[in-house]
């Protein structure tokens, strides 16, 4: 194995995978942005994919603003299934929450592997090619190491690549596509057979992910295609043929699958996948109903053509370059500047040619998306590995003098510190998931307990509650051939009894109807302070009824979430620094469940991290 390949797969990839695994296990909950995919994977693995199973799917009750494709969740469930089966066989999976962790680990592993493949492709052939003296250059090996160091120290990669937002599912396809193009950008490999094959695969991957998963990846296809055409690495006719074939196949896949999963079961019974597709084609042709569903096209029309995305906020045209990209890169942005200067000024080589291509691709991607008013960092997540490769070149430049080495080490150390702080703040931003976990543990201690019906309000559902986290939910998939997925998600009904997890919204809060509506619940996960769900009226100015008229009371202290920072005084800073060594020893030797001891890392900060009550655990007063 060439040395750069061994460095990639025996050192870089395991380190990156260890980081992703730690982030996944330490932060096990999910938020509303991840909900569609994680709920869909749960339903596929729990109930199967037969027509009789569709009516139990979460999207039938909570469809969201626009339909999303089931192709990603199906692929993720298929990848996770053999690992889940193996883990269940050896007893490593005990609850449905364990299944969620493994599903996320599969996604994180795919993204870490894609990043490693990208690194290998970006630096390998340059390292293997000998210079005029016959020695192998060490520059590519050094840049490879810095690529992994920069990627690992950035918070967003380690935290988000295992999270089931659609962007993370599309990320490995986009990164592998850039890798396939990059490894063929040697100065002497324009017409190689492998080059043509790799470029075709890259265009297929980009088109597939843009058509099915995230339409903004089209902003990556544009610069990649133009670069390949203008440099003569791919012909216009071949590009058109490849693009049309990939687009046709992708549209066929998404319409065939998603028309089936998004059937309107309120009007009709579920049909088989072929029947559902042909029925939609006939009805659409006759004008009697909607045509076969293409979710990403619907989302594009909804967000861009109809301008609905502006309801989530509008940013200046330059926000990607001046705000969102610095948020992703943080201290490595200065390394990107050094790397860009080196790439543009140095004489042509495999490394500089690739760096220029990656800069062009990333810049065009952000420039195209800058034409839209609504902007988010996750829309440019796909080009972060490309920019990190350029930043690695800048980091290698800084190793050429002692002063610059000190600056480089300082930048990476600051990046590590900020990454830890961002992770710590994110850990206290999932009060809904923490509250449900606490409720499970709290009620498990009670010896005798009747039926449990939990109401989960919107705030809790958006901050960590998922179907996988609902441990005591009944899960009984059918035994049909197409439901072989079903049965790998355990249920704790046998030991704790089956619970009902109710997410009904807009319940009445005053009058006889309110008393009746709330009376069926035994417990609540509620944003209302002190479990005061009953109000004097339904007006906006209504006040809570007195405590003796409230049907619920707090079960435990509320779960808190991040509320901001407060500067410490000089005396407090000195006092905290003096207490930090003892707190560190206690944290290492003490119980992980003991929250009474101060966090040693917080003691080292010049700021206080403030938290406020977010979710209250409530029980019905007559259920004691």
Structure described in brief:
The chain is mainly α. It has 24 helices and 6 strands.
Can you give a write-up of this model?
There is one protein chain. With 624 residues, this protein is mostly helical. The chain has a domain of 336 residues. Helix content is 57%, strand content 6%. It is built from 24 helices and six strands. Strands 1, 2, 3, 4, 5 and 6 form a six-stranded mixed β-sheet that branches. Helix 16 crosses helix 17. The N and C termini lie far apart (66 Å). About 2% of the residues have low confidence. InterPro entries: GPI_mannosylTrfase. Belongs to the glycosyltransferase 22 family. This is Mannosyltransferase. Its EC number is 2.4.1.-. It is a multi-pass membrane protein.
């Amino acid at each position: 194995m060439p040395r750069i390949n061994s460095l990639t797969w025996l050192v870089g990839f395991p380190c990156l995978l260890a980081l992703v695994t730690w982030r996944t296990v330490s932060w096990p909950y999910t938020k509303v942005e991840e909900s569609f995919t994680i709920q869909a994977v749960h339903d596929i693995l729990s109930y199967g994919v037969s027509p009789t199973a569709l009516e139990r799917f979460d999207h039938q009750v909570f469809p969201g603003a626009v339909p999303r494709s089931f192709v990603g969740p199906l692929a993720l469930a298929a990848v996770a299934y053999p690992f889940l089966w193996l883990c269940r066989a050896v007893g490593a999976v005990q609850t449905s929450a364990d299944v969620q962790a493994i599903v996320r680990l599969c996604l994180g592993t795919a993204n870490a592997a894609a990043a490693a493949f990208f690194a290998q492709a970006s630096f390998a052939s340059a390292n293997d090619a000998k210079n005029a003296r016959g020695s192998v250059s060490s520059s590519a090996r050094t840049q490879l190491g810095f690529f992994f160091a920069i990627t690992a120290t950035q918070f967003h990669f380690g935290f988000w690549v295992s999270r089931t937002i659609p962007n993370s599912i599309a990320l490995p396809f986009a990164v592998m596509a850039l890798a396939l193009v990059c490894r063929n950008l040697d100065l002497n490999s324009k017409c190689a057979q492998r080059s043509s094959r790799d470029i075709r695969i890259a265009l297929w991957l980009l088109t597939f992910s843009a058509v099915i998963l995230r339409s903004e990846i089209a902003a990556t296809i544009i610069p990649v295609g133009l670069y390949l055409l203008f440099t003569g690495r791919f012909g216009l006719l071949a590009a058109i043929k490849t693009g049309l074939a990939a687009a046709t196949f992708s549209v066929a896949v998404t319409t065939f699958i998603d028309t089936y999963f998004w059937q309107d079961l309120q009007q009709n019974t579920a049909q088989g996948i072929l029947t559902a597709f042909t029925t939609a084609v006939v009805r659409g042709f006759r004008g009697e109903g909607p045509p076969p569903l293409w979710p990403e096209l619907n989302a594009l029309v909804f967000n861009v053509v109809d301008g609905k995305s502006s309801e989530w906020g509008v940013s200046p045209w330059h926000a990607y370059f001046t705000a969102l990209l610095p948020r992703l890169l943080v201290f490595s942005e200065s390394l990107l500047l050094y790397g860009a200067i080196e790439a543009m000024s140095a004489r042509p080589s495999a490394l500089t040619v690739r760096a220029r291509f990656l800069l062009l691709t990333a810049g065009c991607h952000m420039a195209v998306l800058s034409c839209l008013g609504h902007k988010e960092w996750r829309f440019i997540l796909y080009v972060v590995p490309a920019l990190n490769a350029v930043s690695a070149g800048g980091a290698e430049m800084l190793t050429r003098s002692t002063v610059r080495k000190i600056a480089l080490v300082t930048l990476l150390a600051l990046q590590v510190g900020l990454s830890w702080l961002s992770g710590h703040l994110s850990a206290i931003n999932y009060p809904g998931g923490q509250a449900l976990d606490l409720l499970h543990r709290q009620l498990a201690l009670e010896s005798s307990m009747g039926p449990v019906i939990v109401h989960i309000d919107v705030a809790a559902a958006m901050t960590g509650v998922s179907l996988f986290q609902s441990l005591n939910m009944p899960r009984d998939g059918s035994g049909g051939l197409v439901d072989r997925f079903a049965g790998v998600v355990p249920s704790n009904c046998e030991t704790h009894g089956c619970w009902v997890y109710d997410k009904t919204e807009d319940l009445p809060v005053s009058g006889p109807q309110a008393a009746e509506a709330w009376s069926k619940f035994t417990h609540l996960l509620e944003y209302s302070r002190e479990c005061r769900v009953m109000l004097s009226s339904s007006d906006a100015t209504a006040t809570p009824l007195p405590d003796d008229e409230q049907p619920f009371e707090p079960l435990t202290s509320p779960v808190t979430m991040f509320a901001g920072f407060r500067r410490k005084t000089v005396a407090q800073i000195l006092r905290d620094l003096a207490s930090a060594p003892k707190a560190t020893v206690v944290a290492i030797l003490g119980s992980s469940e003991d929250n009474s001891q101060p966090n040693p890392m917080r003691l080292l900060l010049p700021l206080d991290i403030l938290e406020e009550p977010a979710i209250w655990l409530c029980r019905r007063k007559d259920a004691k």
